[in-house]
Amino acid sequence: MPTSFALPESIVSGKTSKGTAWSRCGNGPTIVLLHGVGMNKSVWAPEVNLLCESFDVLICDMWGHGESDLPNRELSLKDYTQQLVDLLKELEIDSAVVAGHSMGALIALDFAINNPNTCLGVCAMNAVFDRTAEQSAAVKKRAADLAAGGVSVNLAETLERWFGQPGTHEFPEAEALAQELLLVVNPKGYEAAYSVFAVSDKAHAQTLTTLAVPALFFTADGDPNSTPEMSFAMAALAPNGSSKVLTGHRHMMTLTAPEEVSATLATFTQSVTK
Fold it and tell me: What PANTHER family does the record tag this protein with (predicted)?
């Protein structure tokens, strides 16, 4: 792929007083990128490289992922949202566009709904919403299997869900990176986040109508679990919501189509920071 999977050398990294690892580079309006379950902030390297020439890009590890600490308590979606609130406060960032992928999208939406004075706009990528009974049962089973047997139990199934069957797609480097990140994730941090992810698809069903900031719901046509229909439904509920569907990609479009994702983020950010 033409886009680098390595973070730029100019990036600055640190860790907050509360244990959140972060990295930041670039100048301009601030864009915060939130990763999904099992990944870490380095998964955003392609987008960081493409966006940091025009924007101040901030990435962070969610609790129990990458270099961030794992709080010694049962976590809820609100705990991951508060992690972002505290990070922005400590870095003295007064306003930002927040974009999240998968579980990161749930966190981004929760932040946007509850912090409209800080959030300039929100982009929810490959977000889940109001799963069917069958979808809900499947994700809860994956969470239970993960708790019982660890990451390796459903690793192959996860990668196939994210990228397609091995050898049938054009993104072996992206798949290899995702596999590498899954294999090094803190198992307890992964389990904690997945347990929240499995039950949070209806977290904003009653509150999306109160979302005060511009919102873009962006997914891929080949994503079997964060479907275009979910993005359409969320966009219809949000007062200033819109949707976009990327053709020819699946759940990990942030790795398989970073140019398109970055261009979409840039256009959206420019539209809300004029």
Answer: HYDROLASE ALPHA/BETA FOLD FAMILY, PIMELOYL-[ACYL-CARRIER PROTEIN] METHYL ESTER ESTERASE
Is residue 68 domain-resident?
yes
Domain of residue 128, CATH code: 3.40.50.1820
Interatomic CA distance for residues 274 and 269, integer angstroms: 9
The pLDDT tens digits for 154-193 are 899 999 999 999 888 999 999 999 999 999 999 999 999 9
The answer to whether residue 47 sits within a structural domain is yes
Q: What is the rounded CA–CA span in Å between residue 141 and residue 132? A: 14
> With contact defined as beta carbons under 8 Å apart, do 44 and 254 qualify?
yes
Asked whether residue 93 is assigned to any structural domain, the reply reads yes
Considering the domain boundaries, does residue 64 fall inside one?
yes
Structure tokens at 186: 């803190």
Hey, is 11 helix, strand or coil?
A: coil
Give Cβ neighbours of residue 219 (< 8 Å, ≥ 6 apart): 125, 126, 127, 226, 227, 228, 230, 231, 243, 244, 245, 246, 253
Residue span of the structural domain in which 224 resides? 12-272
Each residue's pLDDT tens digit, 16-62: 999 999 999 999 999 999 999 999 999 999 999 999 999 999 999 99
What is the C-alpha separation between 132 and 268, in angstroms, rounded? 30
Task: Supply the pTM of this predicted model.
Answer: 0.97
